[in-house]
Amino acid sequence: MNRTLPVLLAVASLTLPAFSLRADDAKAVWMKKCALCHGADGSGKPAMKTKDYTKAEEQAKMKDEEILKAIQEGVPNSKMKGYAGKLSGDEIKALATFVRSLKK
Questions:
Q1: Half-sphere exposure of 25 toward its Cβ, with a 13 Å CA cutoff?
Q2: Does residue 6 fall inside a structural domain?
Q3: Rounded to 5 degrees, what are φ and ψ at 97?
Q4: Structural domain contains residue 47
Q5: Boundaries of domain holding 67
Q6: What angle, rounded to 10 degrees, do the helices at 89-101 and 4-29 form?
Q7: Residue 10 falls within a domain, yes or no?
C-alpha cells in the first residue's frame, strides 16, 4: 500500500490552519491600519482618492512589487505613509496578499 498520500494529507492538514491564521491576521491588520482610508472591503473612499481594490481593472494595473513598496515606503504625493518599521516583513507581505484577495 502506498503510504505517501496519507502522509501528504496529514502534513497538509497541519499547515492549513497556519495559512488561514495568516489570512485572519492580515485582515485584522487591514482593519486596524488600512480600512479607515481604503474601506473595510477595499473599495476605497473617493473623498480620500483611494483606489478601489475590489475592481479587476485596478488590480491588473498593480504589480506585486508595487503593492509591497507602497505598504513599506508609502506613496509619494499622497497621505499614504509607509509601514516599514511599524509592521513586520511578514505582516507587510500578508497585507499585499490580502490586497489581491479583495478583487471580486
A1: 14
A2: no
A3: -65, -40
A4: yes
A5: 25-101
A6: 90
A7: no
Amino acid symbol at 7: V
- Note the pLDDT of residue 11: 52
CATH number at residue 58: 1.10.760.10
Total number of domains in the chain: 1
Please report which residue ranges of the chain form alpha helices under DSSP H. Answer: 4-29, 35-38, 56-61, 64-73, 89-101
Reading the block at residue 64, the C-alpha cell is 506585486
CA gap 93, 72 in Å, rounded: 9
Amino acid at position 84, single letter: A
CA distance 48 to 34: 12
Q: pLDDT tens, 13-71?
A: 444 444 444 778 899 999 999 999 999 999 999 999 999 999 999 999 999 999 999 99
Distance in angstroms (rounded) separating the CA atoms of residues 61 and 82: 20
Contact assessment for residue 67 and residue 99, using Cβ atoms and an 8 Å cutoff: yes
